[in-house]
Amino acid sequence: MRRLLSQVWVVLRCELRMHVRDRRALTSALSMPLLGPVLFGAMLLGLAAMINKDKPLELPVVGAQHAPGLMAFLERNGAAILPAPADPETTVLEGKADVVLIIPERYAEDFRRGIPAKLEVLKDASRNSARTSHDKLETLLRTYAGSVGTQRLLLRGVSPQLAQPIAIEEVDLATPEKLAGTLLHTMVMFLIIAAFAAGMPVAIDTTAGERERGSLEALLLNPVDRRALVLGKWLGVLSVVLVSELLLLVGYAAVVRLVPLEDLGVKVALGPVQLLQLFAVVLPLCLLATAVEMFVASFARSFKEAQTYLTTLMFVPMLPTMVLSFHPLEPQPWMWAVPSLGQDLLASAIIRGEGLPALGLPLGLLVCSILAAVALAGCHRLFSDARIVFGGAR
Prior knowledge:
Elements: H1 2-21, H2 23-52, E1 58-62, H3 68-76, E2 80-82, H4 88-93, E3 99-102, H5 107-113, E4 120-123, H6 131-155, H7 176-183, H8 185-197, H9 200-213, H10 215-220, H11 226-258, H12 272-298, H13 303-313, H14 318-326, H15 341-351, H16 360-383, H17 386-390
Parallel strand pairs: 1-2, 1-3
Antiparallel strand pairs: 3-4
Helix pairs in contact: 1-11, 2-8, 2-9, 2-11, 7-15, 8-11, 8-12, 8-15, 9-12, 9-13, 11-12, 11-16, 12-13, 12-15, 12-16
């Protein structure tokens, strides 16, 4: 055992030295922790700017003369009434106006008769930047309609409360920490994807890459225990992934401190304790991902072939996020044992301030460790195969 560990250490040192020298693979592996927090911070800053933007509603109106009362109400509530454009539909489609209000000629007559007076609002739902203006206009129109309806009932001696048989009062029990968990779920997704993406170029280079260069054959012909060779290479890939995850967590902690999250109505605590918890949650997935990537890449004869195989594998960590986005699930204990899904649920719980379940982390670690051991056993078998050593047909 001592001799085996000594050989593992020698192989690990050689692998780390090679990874540091290979600028291409190392840059690709560390691009996620460098790019992830930047994109995340830009997204939060853009969202905060959108919420804090308090510009008046600029509203082009067609047929404003047919509803003077409505125009006065809109102006009193901060809307800037603009002249009617020559082509309202083209104006909205080209983004020259967020919304256009069209008031038909029959509006005044229908309004006097007490029947619903039709209004037409032109918008482009595909433009996110126009959504705020549309929401403001819709709120103002509903407020005006409610005010007119109340006055009509009072003039007829009818209490407006009769038209409201029930009163709904919403009480939001979500804490700022739980709101942060919903908003910052993108960070969890990046952490899970990084477990696969960061190790992929390094795992390919240390298996299929060496086989393509012809150095794997010479390495396997040395009197080195195959177990030491597999474990040393795997620990080298794992080291790069863990460094990537640590940098990613540090980057996210810096972004959370710099971005004014209080403007978004959320509160996030990403101190040393939470960062260590997140690292402990993603660690089992890193063990599994690196082992599976080495096993898959060992089948390939070239770097490009291995890259094709592992690119398809990248969709696996995205599945839980997609499932939770379209079909929210109530967390169950058995979900903690499902790789990627369990890490997603546990990391989200940490960000929401709920803490880690007692069995969540041990169960995920146990399952991922067993699966990683199976994948490494498969690598050991492939490295002991003459077809791998001499590059023959599989």
